[in-house]
Amino acid sequence: MATLDTAPERAARARRAGIASFVGTAVEWYDFYIFGTAAALVFGTVFFPSASPAAGLLASFATLWVGFVARPLGGVIFGHLGDRFGRRGTLVTTLVLMGAATTCIGLLPGYHTIGVAAPVLLVLLRFLQGVAVGGEWGGAVLMASESAEKGRGIFAGMFVQQGSPAGSILATLAFLAASQLDDAAFLSWGWRVPFLISAVLVVIGLVVRLKVEETPEFTARVEERKPERAPIMQVLTRHPVAVVFALMASVSGIGAAYFTNTFMLSYTTSELAVPRQTMLNILLVLAIVQFLWQPFAALIAERVGPARFMTVALLGNVVVALPMFLLVQTAQPGAILLGLVLSIITGSAYYAVLAGFLAAAFPPEVRYTGISVSYQLCSTLIGGTTPFIAQFIVNRTGGWGGIAVFYVIILLVTVAGVVGLAAHNRRQVRSA
């Protein structure tokens, strides 16, 4: 029988799970974001020096995409393990895998030292990063939401989403410190320091996560029935509509982050000649705004309903898209900051609610696999391709109009996914 505990014990367990999910996810997103930052600033020179600057940047962004290609594989592997054996063990494993891959990137010699082996090994390590984060996100969402008090799943899921801006803050601070070096030192060894710091952060994350028990919902379910032998088959055969809508609902949550943190960093520093230090400072402010705003957004969503709140936030993001691009085009730091803040306020309001919203779309026995596969398939299609496609548009057109259209399309597809998944969930509840 499942152990009965008191309300204070449940509240304490929920807090521990939320903190552990946040800390571990922040470390993993730090690792993922520093790769994106390095891809925009340095990898084209260090690992693809034989290409032209524009081609080297495209090759660098293509390497970034490799991590996104690997994420569905991580979702399937760790979703299977998490649905069969529990959430806690998978979260420890993914954290160690991510930290090891990131640290090795920091130690990897460049093209001028070991030749073509350098970009090949970079791609391999990026692939391992993708597998790790592909298994991490779904488990962290469930560790928080399944341990939450009744009716607080949306707010609990927000703790996982806080890992993204927290990781971005840490990554930006690390590169801000490294960018104080002159260009020669930065390209030689300075860019490596943020990757090596990962080893320390992983140890901190492990200390926190090893103290958390398995989620009560998973424990109770295992006592009632045997776990599914092949969760991925159950998801694909019994819940294909939920997978498609959940994928669409995740598009902006994944694409917008890399549009801002990776492509916009490259675009403003290369096309608009904004100093690297200035843009890193702007990205730091954006991450802080997102981190402070998301808890309030989740609280509002609990009151008005997650689907309605997300739809309004996304449509608000569409409205501010044109002003954002016009402000960025001025190349003035204050105007760029204002434009991107408008976008981050609306976009992160939706993002804060996304985790809890997706978790409610699948039954407990296949929930880890369901949300992981949906979210990580979206990451493959949208996340890594977003900066690549945006840079391709710039290379072909030389203007910002095509990029703006691409950005709005991302938002409108996401709206359709949110509305469709909400309608599907209502139908499922009525037919149950």
UniProtKB/TrEMBL annotation:
Family matches, as InterPro entries: MFS (IPR011701), MFS_dom (IPR020846), MFS_trans_sf (IPR036259)
Subcellular location: Cell membrane
Sequence ranges assigned to domain Major facilitator superfamily (MFS) profile in this UniProt record: 17-428
SUPFAM superfamilies (alphabetical): MFS general substrate transporter
Keywords of this entry: Cell membrane, Membrane, Transmembrane, Transmembrane helix, Transport
Recorded superkingdom: Bacteria
Membrane spanning residue stretches: 57-79, 91-111, 117-142, 154-177, 189-208, 241-259, 279-300, 307-328, 334-361, 373-394, 400-423
Membrane topology summary: Multi-pass membrane protein
The protein, known as: MFS transporter
